[in-house]
Amino acid sequence: MLKLRKTVSETVRETAREKALGTFLLALLCLILNATNASAHDSNETKKQAVVVAVASNFYLPLQQILSSHAHNFDVTVISGSSGMLYSQLKNGAPFDLYLSADAERPQLLFAAGMSSEPVSYAVGQLALYPYNDKLPLKQQLKSANKISIANPKLAPFGLAAMQVLQSMSLEQSPNLVMGNSVAQAFQFVDSGNANIGLLSVSQLLQAHASFNDEKYLNYTLIDASLYAPIEQQAVIVKGAKNQVTARDFLTFLMSDEVQNHIVSLGYSRPSD
User: Fold this and answer.
1) Backbone phi, then psi, for 116, in 5-degree steps?
2) What predicted TM-score, i.e. pTM, was given to this entire model?
């Protein structure tokens, strides 16, 4: 049984474990990618080397669906995690070609530091309460919940937006609040029954509905966008990336009208021009 309520000391220990795990995963990732690159170099095939895309967890499944539904002439290796964890790995030398964050802050920081191309907004996330009880006002449903699941606001932009919603209702100190490392994990807490409601990504719920063909995942309500800062998701090409040309091709593909329309159908708003 997953223990969701944590003391301060437990949280500190968990954060230390997460940092250690992040360092280990970064080292493992580098080994895997370097081995892949060496294998590709030794091969006699003329096939292009795959472009390595680090993508925020909320956009992992949408990206997989987009790549399988639209014609393109490049291969893609997708690395998924929270925006914060991927950003930390990138800053520490992870060999990513592109970074698709769930926010604008981290891509802007990379650009300001001279580590990337100018950020491009590729989607705007939408926050939802799931499951939704239409007999109770939003605040009452949150206040009466045994467990409220959100993503960690320090790591995930959807978690930050969820915290802003809770702050607007003076519920940010709720003892019933539990956090996942990403919005995907926050969804898993609700889906497994370890939390009875969550402030989650609309796209995550639509993907669950498509994957499991279960109408329960549509039992959500959109959170009023005025209660949280826009979840503007931006992409950058990493400076010094090995696959600069393919990375630009990928970004052009992502921003095409056809793909942008598909992204909207997957639970996002289109960035304003």
Assistant:
1) -155, 175
2) 0.81
pLDDT of 106-135, one tens digit each? 999 999 999 999 999 999 999 999 999 999
Helix (H) or strand (E) holding 206: helix 202-212
DSSP string, 49-96: PPEEEEEEGGGHHHHHHHHHHS--SS-EEEEEE-HHHHHHHHHTT---
Q: Is the pLDDT confidence value at 33 over 90?
A: no
Measured in whole angstroms, the distance separating CA 248 from the mean position of its chain's CA atoms is: 21
Q: Is 31 exposed, middle or buried (0-12, 13-18, 19+ CB in 10 A)?
A: exposed
3-state secondary structure of 127: strand
Work out the end-to-end distance of the chain between its first and last CA atoms, rounded to an integer number of angstroms.
Answer: 47
Contact between 130 and 200 under an 8 Å Cβ cutoff? The reply is yes
